[in-house]
Amino acid sequence: MPQQGEFVTMSSDVDSSDQLRGASVDEVVEAIVTLSRMNEAELAERVASGKLNEMFPFRIRDGETPALRPFSEVEEAPTRALTDEEYLRFLRG
Amino acid sequence: MGSVPVRVSLMRSQDATYWHNQMQPLIVASTEMRADRHWDRRLFRRVLPLVQHLQRRRCLALTTVAENDHAEAVPVAMHLLIERYPHLSDWNLGATFVWFMCAMPKDIFTRFDISGVPPSLGRVCVDVALTASHLLGLEGRIGLHCAPTGGPRLMSFYKNHCRLLNLAEHLPLPPFHGNDGRFFYTEDELTKDLLAELEHLRE
Question: Which residues of B touch A76 (CB under 8 A)?
Fold first, then answer.
């Protein structure tokens, strides 16, 4: 399970035997930049047709399914816009 | 079946992983026509906000959780909202764009020991977007594109159940590609009505 502040760990599927290699930073950056140049509806269509993996061919390694947390501990989303600092923290996961 | 408490929180990566591992296989196995059959919420949570960040836009991922019989928070809906986007019907105004949203199929609630069901989780999803827009100072204006993979049922849901306005197919769109007639939006009076409709469910 990713820890707070830890960027996602990715690796590429390179063949059908599920052998993995680490993705280079360049590959990940390129994929994200390519996605960012598509309009939202077009990207949504790619996602819906299961083609996002063609454009972002990396697998997220996130380990086991996390346990459910107590309902009483769920913090509601702020009823205001996040500050820049809060948003950056959110981006990091 | 009674009502069930729900809360909306910022989506954690763990929520996305939980959904991917626990819900998604059930959605894939379902015979129901759903737009989210191929979605990977883990990518939604971690990658798509970064994609918007490069466009200098903020993209908020939210999770709606419901309390089950063991007082646990089960993710029952996931939302990915672009906070400020050109309003579909008036580009000079800002609106919250609902990029992705999905709800747990009602028929699997009991698998997660949820004994009650909200009136309509899909309608709650729309309400979350309206509320977010309202809280961001955008007066509840939202826009969304109805995924073709959702079929006529999803179009009907937005149009008839949620009463969203369908942007006429001949009208141009802001930075989108062509208008395929599947874009929906809200206007001021409608927004007020829709928010008021679920007022009795807010704490």
Answer: 7-9
| Residues contacting residue B10 through CB under 8 Å, at least 6 positions apart | A75, A77, A90, B60, B61, B62, B63
Quick check: pTM over 0.80?
yes
The string of pLDDT tens digits covering residues B23-60 is 999 998 887 788 888 888 898 898 999 999 988 899 99
8 Å CB contact of A60 and B46: yes
Cα–Cα dist B144/B47, whole Å? 20
Nearest CB to A40; choose among B49, B72, B97? B97
Asked whether the beta carbons of residue B39 and residue A47 sit closer than 8 angstroms, the reply is yes
Domains of chain B and any CATH numbers: 6-29+38-201 (3.40.630.30)
